[in-house]
Amino acid sequence: MKQKALWTDNSIQEIMGNLLILGVVISASIAIVGGSIFLFRHGGEQPSYHIFHGAPAQLRSLSGVIEQTRTFHGRGIIQLGLMVLIMTPIARVIFSVFAFLKEKDYLYVTVNLIVLGFLLFSLFGGIAIR
Amino acid sequence: MNYLEFTAILAGGSFAAGVLGALTGLGGGVVIVPLLTLGLGIDLRYAVGASLVAVIATSSGAAAAYVKEGYTNIRIGMFLTIATTIGALCGALLAGILSTKIIAIIFGVVLIYSAYLSSKAKEDHSDDSSPDPLAVRLKLNSSYPTLSGEKQYAVHNVGAGFGLMGLAGILSGLLGIGSGAVKVLAMDHAMRLPFKVSTTTSNFMIGVTAAASAGVYLMRGYIDPGIAMPVMLGILGGSLLGARLLMKFHPKVLRLVFGVVIMALGVEMIYNGFTGKI
Questions:
Q1: Do A46 and B42 lie within an 8 Å CB cutoff?
Q2: A13, B23, B208, B276: which one has the fewest Cβ atoms less than 10 Å from its Cβ?
Q3: B63: domain range?
Q4: Each residue's pLDDT tens digit, B225-259
Q5: Which of A9, A27, A122 sits opposite B74 (nearest CB)?
Q6: CA distances from B146 to B72, B139, B149, B196 (A)
Q7: Considering only CA atoms, which of B160, B155, B150 is closest in space to residue B128?
Q8: 3-state SS string over B220-238?
Q9: A38 to chain B nearest CA, in Å?
Q10: Which whole number is the average pLDDT over A71-86?
């Protein structure tokens, strides 16, 4: 019994590890593509980050970033890569919910659902707070 | 300085921060924020946003390697993540309320404490007797591989550990760092986990914790692609190299020198916070 639980825990960990690597590789690749486009077009301009203006409004929401990516804007594509990166740990939590559901470990299904709730609140509820 | 030069400087500096962060075990975040604010005069909020993104990248990369080795206790990690995500949300909201001066001062204090902690020898308080009843109910007690086979360990003071992890989450959301230093307090001292288990499990939580504040950061415009891209890629590359180097030699002298540098940066952050130059 104990041995079996251990085995499933290990395979959960294995899949999780691969999921994380995949997320990082995809997001870094997207960011590199976007960065190259941005620097090719705007490399000669002057940055001004001494005073805080905040990132442009269209780069603060998923819909805006998708629109910017569709129109091939370098900064939008970078931001898309960063959003994929932020989604990676969230994907891991969603995977954990299903993995523990399969193990019939309902305590940890609940634990992961609570965490997922806070993550989704941060991503989608943030608009309301602002 | 145009964008091309700016990007090159940021990527180079972040690469170095990533290498040093991995070699000293402090992580790239605690180095990059002072570098960006004190060194390049970038606004603290942009620096914290970029650092947070880099923290997600490096911790995910490292966690992937760690979970396969069998040291990570994913149940402890998941349970404590409840505390760190609540904390991170609060921290991210606080970041929008507190002035950058106060945030800089808190950052400085955390830097000094991290430097102090990294200079001390790591202590292993783990044992296999009288676990916290809550740890039994949550199935937290486990074993980890050693040279002489699997070794069992018992988990203590779950409540205190949970509370301290909440604090670690707040600092992470406020400062855009992994806050490994506070996690050491929670997991090594309060819960008395074996050293390898606490290190890898703490890293396992960083990505999810940071993602909890990243949503709020994104909507406030703290995450700017022009800064976050070179910082994320630089730290990611640097920490991968640092982890490789760490397998070849133990940089005791470097650790000490770097500890002093971090200490000095902490003092400067506090000074700039008080004089309002940040």
A1: no
A2: B276
A3: 3-275
A4: 999 999 999 999 998 888 888 777 776 777 788 88
A5: A9
A6: 13, 21, 5, 10
A7: B155
A8: HCCCCHHHHHHHHHHHHHH
A9: 9
A10: 95
At residue B267 the predicted structure's pLDDT band, cuts being 50, 70 and 90, is very high
Split into its structural domains, chain B has a count of 1
Query: What percentage of chain B exceeds 70 in pLDDT?
Result: 99
Interface test with A, best of B232, B240, B277, B278 (most A CBs within 10 A): B232
CB B33 within 8 A of CB B44: yes
- The contacts of residue B104 (CB under 8 Å, 6+ apart) are B37, B44, B269, B270, B272, B273, B278
Q: What is the DSSP letter of B149?
A: E
Nearest CA in chain B to A56: B221
| Pairing verdict, β B142-146 and B149-153 | antiparallel
Three-class secondary structure of residue B198 per DSSP: helix
Average pLDDT over residues B112-134: 86
d(CA A50, CA B36): 10
**ipTM, 2 decimals?**
0.90
* Structure confidence by residue, pLDDT tens digits, B158-214: 999 999 999 999 999 999 998 888 888 899 989 999 988 998 898 889 999 999 999
Q: What is the DSSP letter of B37?
A: I
Distance CA B4, CA B205 (A): 35
Residue B136 to chain A, least CA–CA distance (Å): 13
Instruction: For residue B142, give the 3-state DSSP assignment.
Output: strand
Listed by start position, the domains of chain A span 7-40+58-125
| Chain A residues close to B1, C-beta within 8 Å | 46-47
Q: Around Cβ A83, how many Cβ atoms within 10 Å?
A: 24
Q: Identify residue B119 by its one-letter amino acid code.
A: S
User: Which chain A residues are closer than 8 Å to B67 by Cβ?
Assistant: 13-14, 16-17
Closest-CA residue of A relative to B173 is A122
SS3 B251: coil
Residue type, A15: I
Closest residue, chain A, to B205 (C-alpha): A89
